[in-house]
Amino acid sequence: MSTLVCFHAHPDDEAIATGGLMAKAADAGHRVVLVCATRGEVGEPEEGVLNEGEELWERRVVELANAAEILGSEPPRFLGYKDSGMIGEPTNDDPDCFWQADVDEASVKLASILRDVDATVVTVYDNHGGYGHPDHIQVHRVGLKAAELAGIEHVYESTINRDAVKTMIEANEASDDPNSEGPSIAEVDGFGTPENDLSFIVDVTAYTDQKKAAMIAHRSQIGPDSFFLQMPDEAFAMAFGFESFNLPGVENTGGPAAVEILPGL
Fold this sequence. Notes:
alpha/beta
């Protein structure tokens, strides 16, 4: 049995980016550990979700615990930093936010967790955080440094298959559904990684129901009317049934390897 540690920036990132891998690894008998850098304090809550006097981070911690259980993970662990918000927001300057964290200090915190759980495989994000979010970029920096400190051999960068997203958008734009909404090609042109530059694509189609249930658990962020949850099952499976990963520092020119699970698991 191996131990998979998925390091994420905010609650709900785990369901979207690595939920299938987590569920698949747990189903195969591996230990699955979820570490979150922040509690998602500055997310935008869906209207009417929070109780009177309830802070968003309080709800998101509960949602993350529920999603982790759905995906077969142990209860989530937190590094304790504040959500930095989107790039260019005033919250980027909060001295307690993850974007302002000392990379060496944060890496030591994470490395301690990696050693404590005897991590075998670690996932982080690519070097631009998938879409440029400050906390995602910091996950890349801190995650790689922590894995080095802890001596982890198998480290992978979770990324977005840019070409697959564009194909999905084109199909969505051609849809006759008048309620069909979603991002445009221009909005995702710099997202993730072109498919030919990916290292691995993991087939998680058998776990899309769990992945969707984990996304639904994040009710404060992903409402029932969201673009993701309004997808027909077939479209959802196409969009979320394959998860993409890069090997850090390795330029891949031969196209991705289609694998059942990441090497090391």
